[in-house]
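Researcher: We plan to redesign the surface later, but first we want a full-length starting point. Tokens attached.
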């Protein structure tokens, strides 16, 4: 597919790792909540031979599309792991072997689900996953070489602005996917009219906020913060003005809000445009401030080194408020023991199984995204430390992130209406670690970019020094 792909083992190794992890995710996610019930083999075979083909309505369309999309990355990643950098013949052979393997995996998953009664087994899932597997192979044939080139280009990206640009488009792709969940798409004018009749199209700004003022503020803040990172990353490019970045971000929000008209279960609300405008303005302002600090013109005051830690403390207080609200704690021992027992017995991600794909994605994003600023602020603080202390600072920062996640989940366990998952501590810690690593990378890229400027600083003084040297040699 691409000769360059064979010159570097990094993309191939990354694709192998991604394919293995994603395959494990597909199998595990198809069997959650792992409520196994033994079944005689002959009965299982007979029941599998009689699995129905369901007549799906609009309410079940999201499940069918989710199964289709589930297998597209699966075969795409395995195509990359097995054929990246290879010629057309090997790629064709891999394709011919991979499609039957994907079908076999789909059939195997559906058969295994017979032993897990909470799962639904149907021919529809097999057809959807088979179609998704074929699409994944075709997508690799059409875009595989460009994808490998894109992966390799990350190794060659040394400027902070270029890295920010790449991260912006990756983040935009994530926002796009989130805004079309749960994937119950429609182009029927009748179904769109039903959305309007059911109140899923709101043209009155801030007209349908929750009655609880604190929860309404939380909804507005989270909707705005979704757009702030995109504007921030676009602004860090250094070539776009604040107004242009704001316009790009707001225009993207308008487009995605229009797209939600064709997602049957989503609500199109004009309020989201106002929150997007606010988030875009905040991100553009912060990005402009960061872009202007490539080389500080004057030494910063001593107290500024402690500012990130102070902000991190404030953010931890905000996390506690957001995840513990409305603070309806119960402290009796019997209740706490029962909650802790259920929490420890629950398999990972079981809490996300109950509900729609959109709800699961929303909860996962909230857990991860809310902890990213905490990690970023702690990384900013560590960057002010002396080199000899930065290793210790990194260790204690990551430990503080994990402890904060533990405190948040512990408080939610004491509230009857909360349903924390056993993986929430891991997800929140990963979010904080992601923010920490991203800021550390940005600071290192900024330093590299600033070094040539420092070497060439004060050119007039250097020129005068050279002239004095020439004159002294002439005098000799």
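Model: Full-length starting sequence:
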């Amino acid at each position: 597919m691409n000769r360059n792909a064979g010159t570097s083992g990094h993309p191939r190794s990354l694709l192998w790792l991604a394919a293995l992890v994603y395959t494990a995710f597909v199998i595990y996610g198809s069997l959650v909540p792992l409520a196994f019930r033994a079944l005689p083999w002959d009965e299982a075979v007979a029941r599998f031979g009689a699995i129905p083909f369901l007549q799906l309505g609009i309410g079940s369309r999201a499940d069918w599309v989710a199964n289709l999309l589930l297998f597209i990355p699966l075969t795409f990643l395995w195509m990359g792991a097995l054929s990246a950098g290879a010629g057309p013949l090997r790629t064709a052979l891999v394709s011919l072997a991979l499609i039957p393997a994907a079908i076999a995996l789909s059939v195997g998953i559906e058969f295994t689900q017979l032993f897990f009664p909470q799962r639904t087994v149907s021919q529809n899932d097999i057809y959807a996953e088979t179609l998704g597997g074929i699409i994944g192979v075709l997508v690799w044939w059409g875009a595989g070489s460009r994808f490998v080139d894109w992966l390799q280009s990350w190794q060659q990206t040394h400027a902070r602005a270029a890295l920010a640009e790449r991260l912006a488009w990756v983040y935009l792709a994530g926002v796009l996917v989130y805004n079309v969940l749960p994937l119950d798409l429609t182009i029927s004018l009748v179904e769109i009219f039903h959305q309007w009749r059911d109140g899923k199209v709101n043209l009155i700004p801030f007209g349908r906020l929750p009655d609880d003022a604190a929860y309404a503020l939380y909804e507005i803040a989270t909707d705005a913060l979704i757009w702030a990172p995109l504007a921030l990353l676009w602004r860090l490019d250094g070539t776009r003005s604040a107004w242009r970045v704001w316009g790009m971000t707001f225009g993207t929000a308008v487009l995605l809000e229009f797209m939600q008209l064709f997602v049957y279960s989503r609500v199109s609300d004009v309020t989201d445009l106002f929150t997007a405008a606010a988030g875009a303005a905040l991100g553009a302002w912060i990005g402009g401030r960061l872009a202007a600090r490539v080389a500080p013109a004057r030494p910063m005051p001593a107290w500024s080194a402690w500012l990130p830690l102070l902000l991190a403390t404030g953010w931890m207080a905000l996390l506690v408020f957001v995840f513990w609200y409305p603070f309806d704690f119960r402290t009796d021992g019997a209740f706490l023991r029962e909650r802790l027992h259920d929490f420890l017995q629950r398999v990972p991600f079981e809490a996300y199984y109950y509900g729609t794909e959109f709800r699961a994605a929303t909860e996962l994003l909230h857990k991860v995204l809310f902890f990213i600023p905490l990690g970023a602020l702690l990384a900013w603080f560590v960057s002010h430390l002396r080199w000899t202390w930065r290793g210790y600072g990194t260790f204690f920062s990551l430990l503080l992130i994990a402890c904060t996640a533990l405190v948040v989940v512990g408080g939610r366990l004491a509230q009857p209406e909360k349903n924390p998952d056993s993986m929430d501590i891991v997800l929140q810690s990963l979010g904080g670690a992601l923010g920490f690593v991203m800021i550390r990378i940005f600071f290192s890229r900024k330093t590299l970019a600033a070094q040539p400027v420092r070497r060439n600083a004060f050119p007039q003084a250097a020129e005068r020094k050279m002239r004095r040297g020439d004159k002294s040699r002439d005098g000799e």
